[in-house]
Amino acid sequence: MRLTRRELLKGTAAALAVAGSGSAGAAAAAEPAASTGVPAAGAAPDAGAALTLWYPRPATQWVEALPLGNGRLGAMVWGGGRSERLQLNEDTLYAGRPYDPTPPGALAALPEVRRLLFAGRYAEAEALANAQMMGRPKKQMPYQPLGDLRLDFLEIAELNGYRRELDLDRALATSTFEARGMQHTRQAFVSAADQCVAVRLTGDRPGRIGLRIGLDSDHAEAGVEADGGDGLLLRGRNGDAFGIEGGLRFAARLRVLPRGGTLRRRDGRIEVLGADEVVLLLTAATSFRRYDDTGGDPEAITRAQLDAAVRKPWDALLEAHVAEHRRLFGRVRVDLGQSPPEIAGLPTDARVARFAEGGDPALAALYHQFGRYLLICSSRPGTQPANLQGIWNDLLAPPWESKYTININTQMNYWPAEANALAECVEPLERMVAELAEAGTDTARRMYGAPGWVVHHNTDLWRRTAPIDGAQWGLWPTGGAWLLQHLWDRWDYGRDPEYLRRVWPLFRGAAEFFAATLVEDPNTGAMVTAPSISPENEHPHGAALCAGPSMDAQILRDLFGQCIEIAGLLGVDAELAARLAVLRDRLPPHRVGRAGQLQEWQHDWDMEVPEIHHRHVSHLYALPPSSQINVRDTPALAAAARRSLEIRGDEATGWGIGWRLNLWARLRDAGRAYRVLAMLLSPARTYPNLFDAHPPFQIDGNFGGTSGITEMLLQSWGGSIFLLPALPEAWPRGKVGGLRARGAAGVDLEWEGGRLRQARLRSDRGGRYRVEYRGQELELALEAGEAAVLRWDGRGLVRSA
Ligand code: FUC
After folding, report:
1. 400 lines ligand 1 (CB under 6 A)
2. Could you report the per-residue pLDDT of 513-532, keeping only the tens digit for each?
């Protein structure tokens, strides 16, 4: 994994000669199947049960409903016996239209804001920034629901033997029950293969299914009409928000396909009587084409998709759906140990309620896989990236607009992606970064008079890049630079030189912005971001606005270092690289403060802040997601970071706990990591449907949880791969297959009695790898496609023949 520059370049040239591959999509598709050596998901006899969420009653609130999605279309399935509801989303249905929020007075105010900051007049600086530097409007556009598919069953009263479940391996929601002497089975899925929501209602007696079917929407400008004899068409316009008028049209088209019985229209609904079986297919779209283009035709798109889907029989739709889902989902298998049947057999919410009592390792594995499931369902090539709620939202005005908060939340959504073999799911994020680089060029020029591009702490469907909410939250220029770390990771886990060539302009543009806007802090001599904040923490001087917060220095240290490396590998932009090398050395250094903590700011303010247990741990960015501070190479700084974490405490929002989990795993404190996982996997932070509770629902905690569990089992940073670095006592035996490590490698692990039994490392492209277990290192060189099996002989790691 540690490649010299020469080896890397050699690999680069060879790969270029062979592949000449194209897009990230192509590269990702060419990614070798997981190097597991274990059977594919679903093959083990207990795999079905281990990958299922189940409940003995229908949902009574949204956070009990079960999420389905194909990256673009989302459905929350309530599983009601008499009255079923599928709450629907389409991932481009945001309020508003393309708009320009750039504050006209920002550029003129910038020197004075800086002067006030360097004079220690923070509150005045923040007030001026609030008056002159915030976007107009000071908010961005909310993500909005599409509507509901409502099914009212005419003859169902009491339900017996009820069960509903979500099968993660097939991405299929099923409810079964008996009513009036008939056994009912209802299935639902959202197909990526056929771009539709599919529902089937069956019974074990012929001619007994009767229901009324409707489409509803909360949008003010929406209506339902007949669509042929057996369909409904919901059409509408998105909402206005914060003074920006709606400019998107949307459509959802439903086709009702009964077998037997009669069908008729009644009061804007469709009524089916006496059917043996009913299949419902629904497609949806908006007129959104790109962040600056709303000229799409949702009625034509939904018609074409529906016409194609209705030609396929149910079994063919289901088969194509399951195959496409498993292609991604089946790559990783996680077995953290069996839970006894009396625990494993409990409804999923009951298991969450008792997880802290111990004895349920399989729930941790289920939770891990649920995060992978959610990413596959909310972020696929061509879709929007997963927002604060993935793609699932039932409110016209959701919390924080259910958009993109890029000072931790969007990044955390993608933390588990690479190590969990879901590289394709990162494509929407990569595309968003490219679009932000376009849109943020205007913001860089007009707000800062600078080249390159910038985006602050939020963005939305329209890729707006100006600061919002208020200076104390929003005036933070480093959001884009942090997002770029995911593009770096895509390179580092895949090592496709073509990819690097393609994304280099995005890195270069970000670096150019900072090279032009870093200013010398007269108090410290460092080159700093100003104005900025340490998200979203107030310092002791009555403001959050400051100069040179530690997090910015850490992010820029990564960005500049990566730029220097990429420029060297590609043999381009040597002059910029040389400038960045000088600048990197002048960034504020890591500092240890008087409580032994890693300082959050250039000044030792940490112990005087109004909120000492703040949810954000921005200055610990250096540990994970970064690795510039770590227990091996910088133990003193790692100890200071640990001290900071102790002072901050573990109690936080869902994502806040998720971040702490990853931090404790990196600090190799397995026991603490496990206790923090138990805080996350408790009813306070996990809803009955396993959605993360900020509260309210916010999906980042799910992804932080999946990433944290992965980090307990496998880490790769600093040129090494670490096996079982934070394995808790609660998981003495287990195995995982199909994980990925930096350097384009697949990793399988098996352990017993708390000790590694065997690891298998497979290299995609060839290279040298350093593997570490219990402080002992082994170096090995692998050819492309070659695998090595490693064992622990009690003293060191050895390679088996
Ligand atoms: C940031 C966090 C909040 C919340 C919001 C969406 O502002 O500080 O906790 O997660 O994003």
Report:
1. yes
2. 999 999 999 999 999 999 99
